[in-house]
Design a protein that fits this description.
binds adenosine-5'-diphosphate, 48% helix, 8 strands, alpha/beta, 3-stranded antiparallel β-sheet, binds zinc ion
Length: 214
């Protein structure tokens, strides 16, 4: 099963992708996580990506597409995968489709997690990310047992630089402008499914399981 997660920044793509990955035993491929790991390790890709990410802009397509296409060739992807944060532009979606077509495959589902802009700023300002394992929490909606400490690994939690209100507004503009057109793209491809992302995260997941099957 090959799945694309769509939705605004903070809609809950990562949260749901992790749950889907666990239930259906599929790799969760997050381009944001890949870039953040590169930044942490000080790679050239990381340095390039950071200048865009800090401004709330998208990393240019040419730095993203080959990275993902190569990742999909790895052994763990042979039964499918969940793409979280990719594609984010029409050219990225077209490049993905072309790469799949070349090996006679196609995406199965594009799951669009719908959350209105009014809810997003609150979601992002309360998001806390683990510095070492990448787990995400929310101060209000998904708190850790001990404030500021990751439940999974015990490391420190931070507010991502790009989750500060000024940058979030920019990221929302970029989303509407460059990423939202993918909703029609996948609707036309006949694989779009919408889920209400404003309800409790477990209920969002139940709705997704209804679609994907038990
Ligand atoms: P969020 O979880 O809020 O949706 P991500 O972790 O997916 O954010 O992405 C963080 C940042 O990384 C984006 O704002 C963008 O700068 C960059 N990025 C991630 N994926 C892509 C992509 N497919 N194309 C371009 N830039 C990307
Ligand atoms: P995305 O990957 O789309 O940027 P995340 O999965 O990181 O979004 O979720 C953004 C923030 O909102 C996180 O702090 C997360 O814990 C919280 N969150 C996710 N889903 C829900 C939900 N259904 N209700 C409330 N908060 C949520
Ligand atoms: Zn952790």
């Amino acid at each position: 099963m090959k799945i694309v997660m769509l939705g605004a920044p903070g809609a809950g793509k990562g949260t749901q992708a992790k749950k889907i990955a666990e239930k259906y035993q599929l790799p969760h491929i997050s381009t944001g996580d890949i870039f953040r790991a590169n930044i942490k390790n000080g790679t050239e890709l990381g340095q390039k990506a950071k200048t865009y990410m800090d401004q709330g802009l998208l990393v240019p397509d040419e730095l993203v597409v080959d990275l993902v296409v190569d990742r999909l060739k790895q052994e763990d992807c042979k039964n499918g995968y969940i793409l979280d944060g990719f594609p984010r532009t029409i050219p990225q979606a077209e490049a993905l489709d072309a790469a799949l077509k070349a090996i006679d495959e196609k995406m199965d589902y594009a799951i669009n997690v719908e959350v209105p802009d009014e809810n997003i700023i609150n979601r992002m300002s309360g998001r806390r990310a683990c510095v070492s394992c990448g787990a995400t929490y929310h101060l209000q909606f998904n708190p850790t047992k001990t404030e500021g400490v990751c439940d999974a690994c015990g490391s420190e939690l931070i507010l991502r630089d790009d989750d500060k209100a000024e940058t979030v507004k920019k990221r929302l503009d970029v989303y509407h402008d460059q990423t939202q057109p993918l909703i029609d793209y996948y609707k036309n491809a006949g694989i779009l499914v919408d889920v209400d992302g404003t309800v409790d995260m477990n209920d969002v997941f139940n709705a997704i399981v209804q679609i994907l099957g038990e």
